[in-house]
Write a structure and sequence with these properties.
By secondary structure, this protein is α+β, with helices and mostly antiparallel strands. It has a single domain, classed as Alpha-Beta Complex (Fumarylacetoacetate hydrolase, domain 2), CATH 3.90.850.10. Helix content is 15%, strand content 34%. The chain has four helices and 16 strands. It has a six-stranded mixed sheet, with helices on one face. Strand 11 and strand 12 form a beta hairpin. The radius of gyration is 16 Å and the shape is globular. The structure holds zinc ion.
Length: 213
Amino acid sequence: MSVNRIFCIGKNYAEHVAELASLGLDDAPPLPDEGCVVFMKPVSAIVEAGTEIVLPRGFGSVHHEAEMVVQLTGGGRDIDISDALDSVAGITLGLDLTLRDLQARLKRQGAPWERAKAFDGAAPLGDFQPYLEQDLQALSFTCHVNGTLRQHGHTRDMLYPVARQIHLLSQLWSLEPGDVIYTGTPAGVGPLVPGDEVTLEGEALGRHVWHCA
Ligand code: ZN
């Protein structure tokens, strides 16, 4: 199934929210009552696994955010939490690449994040694995850069579990076949530079490698 739209969930792991705050890169608290932070990337941002990520130059640091990604069969509007996982077709891992310095400036200005999050190459996406009704909140995954462990996440730590994400998204968007959700990143984000090799791996989520140029 080709990718239709790319939804991304922000601030979905408490330790990552805390690390951004401690670096002075974010001072806004999560919004537990209003629902999760949502933004989108264009499908033109996708970089298939096994190919090259061309990092943007001249805009400061480019951070890796390793994330579980789910693809939907559709589902439409106003999906109940209890039915939400019926519309999951596949699961994989991806990178929500972020121009971190630019994003911090945009946040201070109260401006949209697109320039920091939606540029060409900003959505490296692994090959989808079939969803076999595993517990999506019981999966661990890692991000290695040049063989060094940078991120080790576990989906039980999500503030908004996948079913709730689907429910919340479906209140504003009629979910369509091929829509994907980047489900947020755990702690350990950091910069990538040309020459780096990034490997994402997780049981049931596959192993996916990119080279940075
Ligand atoms: Zn992210």
